[in-house]
Amino acid sequence: MTAACRSSRQTEATIDLTLSGWQSNPAESRLLEKVILQFEKKYPNINVKHEVINSQYMDVIRTRLIGDVAPDVFYLEAFEAPTLMKYGVLEPLNSYITPEYNLKDFEPSLLNAFKQNNQIYGIPKDFSTLALFYNQTAFNQAKIRRPPQTWDELIQVSKKLTIDHNKDRKIDQFGIGIAPELARQSFMVKAFGGALTQNNQAAFATPESLKGLQLVVNQYREGTAAQPSDVGANSNSEAFGQGRIAMAIEGAWAIPYLKETFPNLKFAIAEMPTINNRKGTMAYTVGYVMNRNSKHKQAAWKLIEYLTNEAGMKTWADQGFALPSRRSVLIDLGYDSNPLYAPLVAGSKYATIWQAGEILPTILTNFDNQFISALLGQQSLSLAMKKAQDTANREIYLSN
Amino acid sequence: MLTQNFWSKQSTREGLSGYAFMLPTIVVLGIFLILPIIYTIILAFHRVQVLGEVSYRFNGLKNFVRMADDDRIWIALQNTAEYVAIVVPIQTILALGLALILNTNIKGKSWFRVAFFLPTVTSSAVLTLIFMWIYNTNGLLNHFLSLFGFSAYNWLGDPDVALKGIMIMNIWATAPLFMVIYLAALQDIPESLYEAAAIDGATPWEKFWCITLPFLKPVTFFVIVMGIIGTFQLFDQSYIFSGGSGGPNNATLTIVLLIYQYAFKNLQMGYALALTLVLALIIMSVTLIQRIFFKEESLD
Amino acid sequence: MVRSTRLLTWVLYLGLALYTLITFIPFTWALSASFKSLAEISSGATNFIPQNFTLDNYNQIFTQEPLFGRWLLNSVVVAVIVTVFNLLFNSMAGYALARINFPGRQWWFFLVLAVLVIPGQITLLPKFLILKSFGWLNSYQGLIVPTVVNATFIFMMRQFFLNFPKELEEAAKLDGLNRFETFFQVVLPLAKPALAAQTIFIFMGSWNEFLLPLVVMSNPEMFTLPLGLNAFRGQYVTFWNLIMAASMVFTLPALAIYAFFNRYFIQGVTFTGGK
């Protein structure tokens, strides 16, 4: 009798799912755990193991995909998506998506980052654009009334904000922080009509691209902008929090960090200044993807669905580390009317997603290597970019 | 007739038992050493895809042509060369010095021997973390230096210093190992040689120069080659130190780290294997050059 | 003369004491941190003796990182099995190469010598591919089997057995023992110093190995301690008290092995003998 009871119970065997991601903050992880618990309550036969991988996340994921021991569901940055989509290790999700899921609610540009040949390989969980963070105290002291609206204004304002308080010829506050990385500069490439890639080749050394990048180099050479390491900080947000730079171009992730680490800092956020009369910024997004070799694809989809449907997204997107990718949730949580987040939300209308096909990692390494030397004045920008582009293209050719 | 039969049976048995003793070695070395080497040589001329569907495609010399333009290889080689040039001589001399001291009749020498060996026993992962903590901007090193009026310095973030930090750690960790090898060799020197020299009225210095040093030549060869090979293989420290990137600004990039990056970050297994092949050739030629050099020395 | 000798002795002692200090400071600093609270560490004080001695860190690493115990277990399992097999296989091969007259012996010896020159890192990627095709990635055997034999120690054991008294084997033969019995009952028990030296080197090597586990074990549950420690650091970047406590837990077993086998150690290392 008991045996019969037991066997009838076991008809629905427990399914173990692994969900891997990174955490930018323990609070974020705890929140996700909470949502997962709710999920397990709703589907008692599914057991979710939440795994946090904080160092070399993509190395670990790639190694595990190669070794056939990858998690069922995992985070994936849009920037890395083309490679994994191309190698066919991700499960296309089209057939799982039901009308009730309301896919149309997602910001289309975010969804596109995980699409290839009309197949959807990932569901964007959140995103952030870049916007201009400015120190209100510094602005008040310099008698600057409003944040710069154009890049020319930004350069002028930076000059006023670059200050040596104690006159020891060591500048105590720079106008703006610069991150000499393609990940943060590719909107400058596009500002005057340039492009990162063309026909699956690096193409960022055109006069149009150089025009945008030259603005950054010039400003740095003039000494009104600084890299984080110039002021002894690890990141621009840290330098900004410490008051070593008066402006920084950052994303939503910096807001909780600044509030928590520098509670006395008075700062505000504005949309990116226009360059060449055009609005432009970048958007970074992370999606949930499913391993093509997962043994429990239905269950894995249920998990993705639960985490990204309106209710699930709402529960865990109100911490402000990033913006929810569903428009309805974005509005429901009031991000578009929150003065700190509104400029970031506004940016999503004209942002370009940080992604450029599977050759982006190659382009990025070469760009970063050469751009820094141009920034430091070791070679001209045009020469540096030409070199970077040629090396990248050669590598792309030879690795095929 | 009978004896011959007996002997051949005996030698067959010897042969069989010989191979029985060798079997595990032959199998394991065959599958995990000889086969890999053949793999490396063949696949270095291929484009290898390991993610998703595994596939191999012959692409001739492309992988090798690409190396000529790969700046990061030159940076890694330069880092390694700098590393060899500084670490190998210092650690060899330090090891020899410590061994010579501990080979005297000094009291408590076995205690010192055990104590010195401590860093060698400790994992490179642990050592790297301990040193990173000491080098840290708020770490012990800066506190120590502040006693002498130096201001705090970011040792970990400065590309000019990062590699030297690893060097110091490695000298400190490896010298005791070689010290033990020297000690073992010193004990092999026949006491009679020294006695004979003492009768001839040799000074301690002459004894060291004319007996000890020549006797230590083969060990020194061993120690130097091991040291060089060890530095060419440097990986753990750089990986942990830089979080796998080889930074700051490629300062801690080593060849093995570069190979790892190409294989698992860029998924260019074929290119990584070609690099591996080149590394193997470099290491083997260093060993050979050393050997020739030492042979000529000993002929003099 | 006596005076200068005494002076020299003092100088030597001073040098030794200084080097002992250099050896111990990093360890004691780490050890002391593992007993301090994070607040005390962050305060930037340079006291080696903790103001408020606490075992919390050790407690925390096992509770906060539930996998820590598993990593410890993985490391022990791998290192012990690898050591046992190495002792057996290397000694067998070394003995055969030194004492058994079998066809092709010179050739195999040459091969072992050649393998000595080939660094392990070079075979890493193909090893990875081979293990992948065996389906051994993320398994104990994937980490153990490729390392159960070591050319360096085969060579060392051969040198050791070359100097081994022949009379004992001849006596064993007269007693009617075959090669295997002779080896296991007579030869091996007398090879203790060499085996002790091997135990130390192999156990440490396996215990501390980083690169092979890094590519073979990608599932956190299969991590060995070095990988776990690195991952642990990724998660608790600023919690130096916890990182140091974890480091100390990790160092202890290797230290114990070393302390235990040390007395055989120096006499056991014979790389260059082979007269």
Task: Describe this structure as you would to a colleague.
The complex is a heterotrimer of chains A (400), B (300) and C (275). With 400 residues, chain A is of the alpha/beta class. Chain A folds into three domains: 14-129 and 284-353, D-Maltodextrin-Binding Protein, domain 2, CATH 3.40.190; 131-179 and 227-271, D-Maltodextrin-Binding Protein, domain 2, CATH 3.40.190; 180-217 and 359-400, no CATH class. Chain A contains 17 helices and 16 strands. In chain A, the strands form four sheets. In chain A, strands 1, 2, 3, 6, 14, 15 and 16 form a seven-stranded mixed beta sheet that branches. In chain A, helix 8 crosses helix 9 (207-222), helix 12 packs across helix 13 and helix 16 (360-375) packs antiparallel against helix 17 (381-398). Chain A is globular and about 75 Å long. Chain B has a single domain, classed as Orthogonal Bundle (MetI-like fold), CATH 1.10.3720. Chain B is built from 13 helices and two strands. Chain C has 275 residues and is mainly α. Chain C has helices at residues 2-34, 38-42, 56-64, 68-99, 105-117, 124-134, 140-144, 151-162, 166-174, 179-187, 192-208, 211-216, 225-235, 240-268. The radius of gyration of chain C is 23 Å and the shape is globular. Chain C starts with a helix and ends in a 7-residue tail after the last helix. The interface between B and C is large, with 91 and 94 residues.
